[in-house]
Amino acid sequence: MKSGNAVLSGYGTTIFEVMSRLADQHKAVNLGQGFPDGNGPADLVAAAATYLAEGWNQYPPMPGLPVLRQAVAAHNQRFYGLDVDWARQTLVTSGATEALAACLFGLLEPGDEVVLFQPLYDSYVPIIRRAGAVPRFVSLRAPGWDVDPAELRAAFGPRTKLVLLNNPQNPIGKVWQADELALLADLVQAHDAIALCDEVYEHLVFDGARHRPLMALPGLAERTLRIGSAGKSFSLTGWKVGYVTGPADLLPPVVKAHQFLTFTTPPNLQHAVALGLGKDDAYFQGLASGMQAGRDRLTAGLQAAGFTVLPAAGTYFLTVDLRASGFNTLDTDFCQRLTVEAGVAAIPISAFYEVDAPRHLIRFCYCKKPATLDEAVRRLKAWRDLDE
Q: What pTM value is reported for the model?
């Protein structure tokens, strides 16, 4: 029998599934896969349920319900001062990963080059390669995860079509600084490239900082597509509602790709997300402060258990340096051992690299209830005490 597609067949089961299965098997506290405890804002859940019973349950418009696309445009103006024509510059997708796929399939040709930053979200490279494009990697190195300007410049060339930026960045919690964004913006314009910005954690930036969209920089609005996620902004990861904002002349091929991927997204969820994007500032401030409290709680607990924790300025995640914590075990082996022996699941950071992966870093997620984080810390302390 003939085999399947060579690009996709070459990938195994994701590390998230592997570690989640292991966590279930050993009844471990799962701080590996990034989804919040809880069921999301009650008013949005109620709105979705009411619409399901009383609203329209047939195909909604392929680009998304007008009410949600209008809310996306208003959100861009409210938070970032971006003027967006909702009818020509927005698209609703079935999650941010589908938005990424639609953008990459819609914009890339075989042989195009894409600049990417490691460590990276694991869907990027398979989609890029399946589109026939070539990834060019720039590695951000611990502990500071700074951008090396020389390495960044060297990644761009005559075949560069697109740069894919995740800001704030999964899995390391990096929030890109103004000077880093300015350098990237200069290179994007100098090489006449497109910027695709995965900004699903836009409302999860901590310590009084504010998210800076690349699209808001001078000259970038006409060459940038920006992706948001209801899953991250409203702690409703199972709903899979994403949205794309982009220039009117770049969005049509993305819409065509979306048309042939999922076509549309459940209308009751779209309706509820539109209400969510109109929530007052207190909601978004509370979302960030609540997540920051989880970060601080887990950081303090891990440090008390003898782990060295790297700074995290946003997202759901923080990084532990095993080497600095006194361990010489490879990250994958350590995560398996931690799940089995300590009853706490984490993810090896090497899973987020395609080349030159460090093997001494692991990721924990803190988007959990205080009791969950406390139980994980209790188990880790007990395990370290026994290990010593």
A: 0.96
CA dist., res. 324 & res. 41, Å (int): 39
How is residue 255 written in tokens? 């819409």
Of 270, 251, 217, the residue nearest 93 (C-alpha): 270
- Cα distance between residue 367 and residue 37, in whole Å: 7
Please give the Cα distance from 234 to 376 (Å, whole number).
Answer: 24
Residue with structure tokens 């026994």?
386
- Residue 291 exposed, middle or buried by CB count within 10 Å (0-12, 13-18, 19+): buried
pLDDT band at 388; cut points 50, 70, 90: low
CATH architecture assignment, domain 42-278: 3-Layer(aba) Sandwich (3.40)
Kind and range of the H or E run holding 141: none
Provide the residue ranges of all domains of the chain, joining segments of one domain with +: 6-39+282-387, 42-278
> Are residues 348 and 66 in contact, defined by beta-carbon separation less than 8 angstroms?
no
Q: How far are the Cα atoms of 4, 82, 185, 212, 334 from residue 79, in angstroms, in the given order?
A: 45, 8, 20, 10, 41
Cα–Cα distance measured from residue 335 to residue 337, given in angstroms and rounded to the nearest whole number = 5
Taken as a whole, the chain contains a residue count of 388
What would the pLDDT profile of 52-66 be if each residue is shown by its tens digit?
999 999 999 999 999
Domain covering 6-39+282-387, topology: Aspartate Aminotransferase, domain 1 (3.90.1150)
Neighbours of 17 (CB within 10 A): 12
